[in-house]
Design brief:
Order of helices and strands of chain A: HHEEEEEEEEEEEHE
Helix content of chain A: 10-25%
Strand content of chain B: over 45%
Mean pLDDT of chain B: 87
Number of domains of chain A: 2
Radius of gyration of chain A: 26 Å
Strand order of the largest sheet of chain A: 1-2-3-4-5-6-7-8-9-10-11-12
CATH class of the largest domain in chain A: Mainly Beta
Strand content of chain A: 35-45%
CATH superfamily of chain B: Lipid/polyisoprenoid-binding, YceI-like
CATH architecture of the largest domain in chain A: Beta Barrel
Oligomer: heterodimer
Radius of gyration of chain B: 19 Å
CATH architecture of chain B: Beta Barrel
Number of strands of chain A: 12
Distance between the termini of chain A: 74 Å
CATH topology of chain B: Lipocalin
Shape of chain A: elongated
Strand order of the largest sheet of chain B: 1-2-3-5-6-7-8-9
CATH class of chain B: Mainly Beta
Helix content of chain B: 10-25%
Largest interface: A-B, 35 and 42 residues
Distance between the termini of chain B: 27 Å
Mean pLDDT of chain A: 88
Low-confidence stretches of chain B: none
Number of domains of chain B: 1
């Protein structure tokens, strides 16, 4: 008796229940949505002054112009808007979706730099797998002229510096992302024997999206073993990123004039405030070209 | 013995119920936005669709991430700012082909149904061409999607670059669905 009822259920009700499923529901059961990688944890290759976990897509080129403007304290100057300025022209190219290289030339500080960045881990949208993204960044700089006289300048080799960063970032929500960047800086030479060649630092960078195309960003770098020959401060930046189609505009207020990691992380000699000499205003324009 | 007969019967009914169902796993959906400032085109070749020749029902699932653009930045903007694919990963269509004749080799029919994009469902009517060959059906056609209908917001500065009316074309080739 029991088995008859069971047979009845299996024969008539079960196929019927399959039928009652709508075609769309059936589609879902055939191929459930696969989990996707998180996109756009940050917008540009730079959060504000430092690197973000973002790489460029394959075969895309970005040309960028970075600038800083500041006033010199106690100077009776007739300068228009700002007493001093510094710029960097750069190019970033995506060799593959996960591998980006970049080059830059700074003027008038004369820093030539190059970097490469490889995305190791990508965060997934539904929090399966590793809950954050990881990108490795390696940059090197060559200083054609002395800026604050930290490095010895007797040979080509002595003017080099290298920065390695492991960028770890998580997109917590659609609006909020946070990056932690353990950093190792190696400078090939020091002018003063009390200065260490190697520095360990860590960067903290939050991003909050104010709208679809505007976000508020900040960055702070803490150096574990700062320079001893000169008093340095942690690099700080507060800025707004605005994206207009192919153009990304990054406005920032900061306490340093150097665009390169080894420079601003270890050699920021001004604390952040709005007084002349300490306050640096900058903007960074990036234009995107699809090759 | 009885059990075996029942089992055979069960399998028969199962396989019968499958016979009128057709599937397409690599359907092509393309959209175009024509403006004087810029032409935008993207193609999705992973569209999933089921078609039941008996009930004349048709269902389509389009993953938004699978749209491929010529320019990588457009792909990011499309997903991040316009379609918001992290919130709304797919578009779906569910409808019926009116007066469908499963024997005719070539026919043009109206498909009536509901199209869902960004969680907004609107009734749509699409004129589609249906071709039959041996054991496959090919359904193709096009429709216009108004971006204002589906809460797709374009910033004023970019409104000359993105058309208010997006032309969507599709081509699905169905073969018999066997589990």
């Amino acid at each position: 008796m029991k088995s008859k009822i069971l047979n009845f259920i299996v024969l008539f009700i079960f196929p019927f229940s399959v039928f009652s499923q709508s075609l769309l529901e059936k589609l879902e059961s055939i191929e459930p949505d696969s989990s996707q990688y998180v996109m756009a944890t940050f917008k540009g290759t730079r959060i504000s002054i430092g690197h973000s976990i973002e790489t460029r897509k394959k075969n895309t080129l970005e040309v960028s112009f970075m600038s800083r403007y500041w006033n010199v304290p106690q100077e009776t100057s007739n300068s228009f808007i700002a007493d001093r300025m510094c710029t960097r022209f750069g190019a970033d190219y995506g060799i593959s979706d996960n591998f980006t290289i970049g080059l830059g030339v700074g003027a008038p500080n004369g820093i030539i730099d190059g970097y490469l960045k490889y995305r190791i881990i990508q965060q997934k949208i539904d929090n399966t797998g590793i809950p954050f993204g990881v990108t490795f960044m390696q940059s090197s700089t060559y200083r054609t002229r002395s800026i604050i006289g930290i490095e010895a300048r007797n040979s080509f080799y002595e003017k080099l510096a290298f920065t390695s960063q492991i960028l770890i970032a998580r997109k917590f929500s659609r609006k909020f992302s946070f990056q932690i960047a353990p950093t190792f800086v190696h400078r090939t030479s020091s002018n003063f024997s009390i200065d260490d060649h190697n520095h360990f630092a860590i960067g903290f960078s939050p991003r909050y999206k104010l709208g679809h195309h505007v976000s508020l960003v900040s960055e702070y770098y803490y150096v574990a073993n700062p320079l001893k020959s000169v008093k340095t401060y942690g690099a700080f930046a507060l800025g707004v990123n605005w994206e207009v189609s192919k153009l990304l505009l990054q406005f920032k207020m900061t306490n340093n004039q150097i665009f390169n990691e080894e420079g601003f992380i270890t050699q920021t000699i001004k604390n952040f405030n709005t007084r002349d000499g300490n306050f640096f205003f900058g903007f960074h324009a990036t234009y995107h070209i699809q090759l | 013995m009885k059990k075996i007969i029942l089992l055979v019967l069960f399998i028969c009914t199962k396989s019968f119920s499958q016979n009128t169902e057709y599937i397409e796993r690599q359907g092509i959906v393309t959209f175009f936005s024509y403006t004087s400032a810029e032409n935008i085109q993207a193609q999705n070749t992973q569209t999933l669709s089921l078609f039941n020749t008996e009930t004349q029902e048709i269902a389509v699932k389009i993953l938004m991430r699978a749209f491929v653009f010529k320019k990588a930045l457009m792909h990011e903007h499309f997903n991040e700012s316009y379609i918001e694919s992290d919130l709304y990963p797919k578009a779906t269509f569910e409808g019926k082909i009116e007066n469908f004749n499963s024997q005719e080799a070539s026919q043009t029919r109206l498909i009536k149904g509901n199209f869902t994009l960004k969680n907004i469902t609107k009734p749509v009517e699409v004129k589609a061409k249906i071709l039959k060959s041996k054991n496959t059906y090919t359904i193709s056609g096009s429709l216009d999607v108004l971006i204002n209908d589906y809460n797709i917001k374009v910033p004023a500065i970019l409104s000359p670059n993105i058309s208010k009316k997006i032309e969507v074309t599709f081509s699905f080739k169905y073969s018999n669905y066997e589990k």
